[in-house]
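Supplementary material to the annual report.
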Amino acid sequence: MLLYYFDLAGVAVFSASGVLAARDRDLDLLGVIVVAVMTAIGGGTLRDLLLDRHPIFWVTDSWYLIVIIASALLTVAYVRRWPPPVATLLVADALGLGLFALSGAQFAEAAQCPPLIVVLMGTMTGVFGGILRDVITAQIPLILRREIYATAAILGISLYLALQALGVPPAGAFGAGMSLVVALRLLAIRWGLNLPVFRQS
Amino acid sequence: MLLYYFDLAGVAVFSASGVLAARDRDLDLLGVIVVAVMTAIGGGTLRDLLLDRHPIFWVTDSWYLIVIIASALLTVAYVRRWPPPVATLLVADALGLGLFALSGAQFAEAAQCPPLIVVLMGTMTGVFGGILRDVITAQIPLILRREIYATAAILGISLYLALQALGVPPAGAFGAGMSLVVALRLLAIRWGLNLPVFRQS
Amino acid sequence: MLLYYFDLAGVAVFSASGVLAARDRDLDLLGVIVVAVMTAIGGGTLRDLLLDRHPIFWVTDSWYLIVIIASALLTVAYVRRWPPPVATLLVADALGLGLFALSGAQFAEAAQCPPLIVVLMGTMTGVFGGILRDVITAQIPLILRREIYATAAILGISLYLALQALGVPPAGAFGAGMSLVVALRLLAIRWGLNLPVFRQS
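Predicted assembly:
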């Protein structure tokens, strides 16, 4: 039940990040909402399709869509008046990433995926919405270029699996993994950490 | 049965719009046909995947693909000689949008989706092919930027649901909803109506 | 069993081509691996989703992902030191295209698709990873623009179906079809063959 509220908080945050990405891209209001919806549900939808989990999480429960649209409208109203609260949003986005990455990993575990695939599936759940957001607004996905993003998800999920293998109960491992994702992400932003960029010799 | 012929007309129209979008983008003939196919089947394929309807509508019925390819080739042949019949195509595209939006809504209703999700699913069915078309040809989707497009689908589907709630039989509600989509779309084009563009203050 | 090793070889080749496409696009190392993974599994994943084949081919078998990541890392290490072995990679890519196209066609046949859809499904399996690769790196897909690529897949699968209709056993038809794909592709590169580009009159 707690996870369900976490999930709603996660889609709300990703919806706001979709709205911010859509600024100044010459989209109309509804276009902005479409980008927000795709950012928020993209990762979980891909996860459910790949794992053959039906109904898809938002298909029979209106609350996800209601929360996403409300969050998008509030964000639109806010940024028309004030500069976006960047720091708050980065923290919220890190929480969303951690949450989706770990919950995606749990679903993959429940579907009997081997550990490496659990890591992949959790990472995809965490980052795919942001990739969609950037592809639709015709940018090379930020996630693939900046700071420790997918990396944070991979390390957090790996910790989650390692702790479980050592006998830690799932809830504790989940909390530890998610905390690692959030901490890595925020430290990377704070100190401007990046993986080396790949260029040809 | 009538709906089946409507459906074939819908994919034919979207195929032609895919060909027109692919002009002057340095694609070869087969690339143009690929874009036409993705534009025509994109929305319905996403709908079937999300609702877990298998086989996907075109997977066991060759007629969709035959109609799409024939329409694409005719459009190619036509526009190599004459300027594209823009007005005709806009009317046809409005009909295609209305048809796919309402039929997508009906499938979502049949899958027990709540009303808000019915609206989302119908709208996605109507507009996703066009989004794919624009993403592949590396443009920010027109649908998210111009005139009343997804808006028309949303209002038409809402009318369809409202009329059914008032006791109107499905066929009548379908016709009314589809007419509203087409009318809104054509009026928006005629009068240059747009939703306000979203820019930061 | 042989097909399984072919398949692993196919994803390895596509992974390398993903890494090469991601060069100089300002991606970090993990971003490059993400592009490699999407290029390698994109076509087969779409095939499995559309044909409702679960589990998706890589979801319960870690070897695909291991091979893809190893191939991506080797390619990164190689091209940081030496110029990429273009000729070798083009041959390998042609083999990968032929293999995926024909195996996609076989799966579609097993799912009772009519012949035209078998051709479409095989072609999509062969080319979709490359389309994803180009969309993510924000380019108009090369596959839609250059030389005989999807065309080679279409003709090879058609040969495969024709030979089977004439009574040739599947394995022989598979080999002939795949050989035709590879031969067409390599001849097209060698002689710079292109389909005519589509421009408006």
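The mean pLDDT of chain C is 86.
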